[in-house]
Amino acid sequence: MARPYRSPPPRHARRPRSRRRNRRDRFALWLTLVVCGGFAGTLAALQTGSVPRAAAEMAVHAAPAVPADGLSVRFGFCHIGGGRNCVVDGDTFWFAGEKYRIADIDTPETHPPRCAEEAALGKAATERLRRWLNEGAFSLESSDRDTDRYGRKLRIVTRGGASVGDALVGEGLARRWEGRRRPWC
């Protein structure tokens, strides 16, 4: 039995393409054109000699740019247990619900200190770390390990490429991390 002929549905009855897909396609095309244009312009500049070859080679071998410091909150002191955006001691703090240990330094213990000198130095390091964190935006950079045995995230804390660890060591409130703790008493 032959099938009856069906005419295609009228144009207004067809299902339109989604706007999201149209925008995504246009964005992908725009991005491709921008990238290709930049690449072609760079090649043309190198071939015509408008960019000195030495400058082009230096750009390839230049040091990586310092990451923009984008983290900033107001820090207080942690009094008991966990916290949010607070300093535990001179090398440990809570930020956005995660506990971090500064990977490149060791500071005196404050919970509990082993002697009066360690207690005083630990309190000074804790206060200095809080002031440094509150002075402006900072970055958390990965170190050789992601976490320590206590589950704290190990990070090097920097501002403008300078480490807070360097500041604390320079002020006599910390030592360089040597892979193990040494007594402060």
Describe how the helices and strands are arranged.
Blueprint: H1 19-48, H2 53-61, E1 76-77, E2 86-89, E3 92-95, E4 98-102, E5 105-106, H3 116-134, E6 139-147, E7 153-159, E8 162-163, H4 164-170, E9 175-176
Parallel strand pairs: 1-2, 4-7
Antiparallel strand pairs: 2-3, 3-4, 5-9, 6-7, 7-8
Overall mean confidence score, pLDDT: 79
The major sheet is characterized as: 7 strands, mixed
Write the CATH fold name of the largest domain: OB fold (Dihydrolipoamide Acetyltransferase, E2P)
Count of alpha and pi helical runs = 4
Q: How many distinct folded domains? A: 2
Radius of gyration (Å): 28 Å
Structural class based on helices, strands and sheet pairing: alpha+beta
What is the level 1 CATH name of the largest domain?
Answer: Mainly Beta
Give the second-level CATH assignment, the architecture of the largest domain. Beta Barrel
Proportion of helical residues:
25-40%
Rough shape? elongated
Distance between the ends: 100 Å
- Provide the low-confidence segments as ranges: none
Question: How would you describe this structure to a colleague?
Answer:
The chain has two domains: 18-61; 76-176, OB fold (Dihydrolipoamide Acetyltransferase, E2P) (Beta Barrel). With 185 residues, the chain is α+β, with helices and mostly antiparallel strands. The longest helix has 30 residues, at 19-48. The chain has helices spanning 19-48, 53-61, 116-134, 164-170, and strands spanning 76-77, 86-89, 92-95, 98-102, 105-106, 139-147, 153-159, 162-163, 175-176.
